[in-house]
Amino acid sequence: MTARERIAGNVAGYVDDRTGAAKWMKKNLTKVFPDHWSFLLGEICLYSFIILLASGTFLTFWFDPSMKEVIYDGEYAPLKGLEMSAAYASTLDISFEVRGGLLMRQIHHWAALIFMVGIVVHLLRVYFTGAFRKPREFNWIIGVGLLTLGIVEGFLGYSLPDDLLSGTGIRIAEAIIQALPVVGSYLAFFAFGGAFPGEAFIPRIYTVHILLLPGIFLALITVHLMLVWYQKHTQFPGPGRTEKNVVGYPLMPVYMAKAGGFFFIVFGVTAFLGAVASINPIWLYGPYTPGQISAGSQPDWYMGWLDGLVRMSPPIETHAFGHTISWNILIPGLILPGIMFTLLALYPFIESWATGDKREHHLLDRPRNAPNRTALGAMALTFTLVSLLNGGNDIIATTFHLTINQMMWFSRIGVLVLPPIAFIITKRLCLALQRADRDLVLHGRETGRLVRLPHGEFVEVHEPISAEKAWTLTSHEQIAPLELPEFDGAGVRRAGGIKNKIRNRISRATAVAVPKATESERKELEGHH
Amino acid sequence: MEGNTVKRLSRLRRHRAAGPMLLVFALLTIGTTFQVAGAVTTSPSTVADRSAAIAEGKQLFLKGCSSCHGLNAEGGAIAPSLIGVGAASVDFQVGTGRMPMADMSQQAMRKDPVYTPAEVNALANYVASLAPGPEVPSEESLNYERDGSVAEGGELFRTNCAMCHNFAAQGGALTQGKYAPTLMGVEPKHIYEALITGPQSMPVFSDKTLTPEEKLSIIKWIKAAEAEPQLGGVALGRVGPVTEGLLVWTLGIGLLIGVAVWLAMKAR
């Protein structure tokens, strides 16, 4: 034993005597994780969250969350001498006077956009591979919670500098609060501490933005990761991979290195964007005044689809008993998003109800092997994408020489018509891919080699695929549809007959599949060739 | 002696550079001649000059404009009357190439002017002779560097202009395919004329709404916005969060997913 080893051993022994960490560490540092690039998407969120915490802390040193009126006397000449809030003036100071301040602001904002992109792509991966199924439903709900909170947190950050764009955003938020029947105007008064814009809002959302929501984020992210740890990571199907094992590499050293390296790469990409691409140039927007607005006022992208829904909604209002209900704000601003987020959060339960599948799943689905789920996902994506496009309708219209009215009508019709079309096309595509898999298993790979047989016939030589590949393509199970009987044994109509009928129908739609190749089929065909 | 010079010159004539040199010389000569011959005083000072310009303008009008605007500028089914629109309006519409229109689309587009400055001046004089209207602002009255204030101009711009032309004067969409054009690279004179004549969808900003000094402040701010360096990196068109979102969904996540794929392939 060298001197160095002895010292290291002594230190480790000292710590272990007092914490008993050795046993725990030994177990957990060798914990195995499966390897796939899409399993790194969630890490993008974790790392950009860390970057957000660090860069945000830097910004709090100089940001003054106050609506106190000040006369700007800083470096940026086009705003010199103007009255503005201390919040806006201090953001200008961060941008132009604090060393590295503009870079930090831009890194913070880009990291926020990447955080939200990361959440969405991670969610798509989890959804399309069926990773949300039992036992991971709670973690799915936490994820949906993080997505929702991320939208709110991002919006509050966008609102803090009190520039013309953020003020416009807050104004719309106020309008959405006010659209709530009966309580709306009271709630708006509570939130703003009086009439819009007032003096209270910026300090309040500052507390929420830097203290309350980050605290909740930290707690939820911790639980999210602990659940992944405890429930173990899912894996894609393959030879030797079962519902009872995890095939992969140990945390130490493989994933320590990979994850650690990935953190620096996420930081690098964020810093690169912050260094070369301008984001939220608040000095161009000018200070917020309720009397001003700019053409092309947009929210950040993660709110863009909500803005798009509001922009496409027809002007419907009801007047009753001296009150106005603005359906044109209420439906796209609150009701539709409420329904969408609820459906998203409850999806694991809806699917297990429809399929009757209550078992644990640790092996992932290939999206094509769950055509109904994949098609539903494509449908939801299409809806959101059309809404998102309409959120930028003015920019798209001027860029591509379209009219804003064409954009609006495209969205109004498209948001209803395109999602079902996407559903049908995606489902067909999945089934076609299943068929292709079946052909691959039964007939092998097309080699592109043409052979002329003695009697003159030309045939293409097919090469059998490896046993591993054949296993991967056929290991998934194909669930039979539910057959809930309408009558019981005695010929009496069962209670909940209509519910069962609906459930049967959904289950049949979910179970649609091209029968996968079986062993006997394969054997039989081998005899032919 | 003389024969030697001639010989030397004729040798030079066959020099390799002779052809290109001659071409450059010829172009210079032609260019200068045209420049001198084509330079017309843009503001006719005397009554005689003015009436000559009006007469020339009328000829130009009959040839190029009357098919839509009518033989006496009285307007028609597809074009408005020009009686009383003033010289400023003509100078703006024709001087920025908007008139004559390329096609009957929603809105006349800014393009390379069809008429020379002298012809624009003649047309303006002719239309102004039909009835009084806003005049072309003089060079002296457009000294925005001296008479304007950037900060005040920005405030006025955000109050009066940004709702259509965007916060950084990059332009924006209006209804039915109409649009507020970008103000980048527009001559101060034309901005001023647009303010006082209200072309197309734009309202008129009379001297009661915005004093001449305030108009100059706006022009000064627009020029400052035009000259502003790209602070904080590539400006992404200065149209707000749409292009930022586009970048993060392409380059941003593209790079990160690329690295994730590479990391997963990497030997353990």
Automatic annotation (TrEMBL), chain A:
<dbReference type="GO" id="GO:0016491">
    <property type="term" value="F:oxidoreductase activity"/>
</dbReference>
<dbReference type="GO" id="GO:0046872">
    <property type="term" value="F:metal ion binding"/>
</dbReference>
<keyword id="KW-0812">Transmembrane</keyword>
<keyword id="KW-1278">Translocase</keyword>
<dbReference type="InterPro" id="IPR016174">
    <property type="entry name" value="Di-haem_cyt_TM"/>
</dbReference>
<feature type="transmembrane region" description="Helical">
    <location>
        <begin position="262"/>
        <end position="284"/>
    </location>
</feature>
<dbReference type="GO" id="GO:0009055">
    <property type="term" value="F:electron transfer activity"/>
</dbReference>
<feature type="transmembrane region" description="Helical">
    <location>
        <begin position="37"/>
        <end position="63"/>
    </location>
</feature>
<feature type="transmembrane region" description="Helical">
    <location>
        <begin position="409"/>
        <end position="426"/>
    </location>
</feature>
<protein>
    <submittedName>
        <fullName>Unannotated protein</fullName>
    </submittedName>
</protein>
<feature type="domain" description="Cytochrome b/b6 N-terminal region profile">
    <location>
        <begin position="11"/>
        <end position="237"/>
    </location>
</feature>
<feature type="transmembrane region" description="Helical">
    <location>
        <begin position="140"/>
        <end position="160"/>
    </location>
</feature>
<keyword id="KW-1003">Cell membrane</keyword>
<keyword id="KW-0472">Membrane</keyword>
<dbReference type="GO" id="GO:0005886">
    <property type="term" value="C:plasma membrane"/>
</dbReference>
<dbReference type="InterPro" id="IPR005797">
    <property type="entry name" value="Cyt_b/b6_N"/>
</dbReference>
<feature type="transmembrane region" description="Helical">
    <location>
        <begin position="109"/>
        <end position="128"/>
    </location>
</feature>
<keyword id="KW-0813">Transport</keyword>
<keyword id="KW-0408">Iron</keyword>
<keyword id="KW-0479">Metal-binding</keyword>
<dbReference type="GO" id="GO:0022904">
    <property type="term" value="P:respiratory electron transport chain"/>
</dbReference>
<keyword id="KW-1133">Transmembrane helix</keyword>
Automatic annotation (TrEMBL), chain B:
<dbReference type="InterPro" id="IPR036909">
    <property type="entry name" value="Cyt_c-like_dom_sf"/>
</dbReference>
<keyword id="KW-1278">Translocase</keyword>
<protein>
    <recommendedName>
        <fullName>Cytochrome bc1 complex cytochrome c subunit</fullName>
        <ecNumber>7.1.1.8</ecNumber>
    </recommendedName>
</protein>
<keyword id="KW-0677">Repeat</keyword>
<dbReference type="Pfam" id="PF13442">
    <property type="entry name" value="Cytochrome_CBB3"/>
</dbReference>
<dbReference type="InterPro" id="IPR009056">
    <property type="entry name" value="Cyt_c-like_dom"/>
</dbReference>
<keyword id="KW-0472">Membrane</keyword>
<feature type="domain" description="Cytochrome c">
    <location>
        <begin position="148"/>
        <end position="226"/>
    </location>
</feature>
<feature type="domain" description="Cytochrome c">
    <location>
        <begin position="52"/>
        <end position="131"/>
    </location>
</feature>
<dbReference type="GO" id="GO:0005886">
    <property type="term" value="C:plasma membrane"/>
</dbReference>
<keyword id="KW-1133">Transmembrane helix</keyword>
<dbReference type="Pfam" id="PF00034">
    <property type="entry name" value="Cytochrom_C"/>
</dbReference>
<dbReference type="GO" id="GO:0008121">
    <property type="term" value="F:quinol-cytochrome-c reductase activity"/>
</dbReference>
<dbReference type="GO" id="GO:0005506">
    <property type="term" value="F:iron ion binding"/>
</dbReference>
<keyword id="KW-0349">Heme</keyword>
<feature type="transmembrane region" description="Helical">
    <location>
        <begin position="246"/>
        <end position="265"/>
    </location>
</feature>
<dbReference type="InterPro" id="IPR050597">
    <property type="entry name" value="Cytochrome_c_Oxidase_Subunit"/>
</dbReference>
<keyword id="KW-0813">Transport</keyword>
<dbReference type="InterPro" id="IPR009152">
    <property type="entry name" value="bc1_cytC-su"/>
</dbReference>
<dbReference type="GO" id="GO:0020037">
    <property type="term" value="F:heme binding"/>
</dbReference>
<keyword id="KW-0479">Metal-binding</keyword>
<keyword id="KW-0408">Iron</keyword>
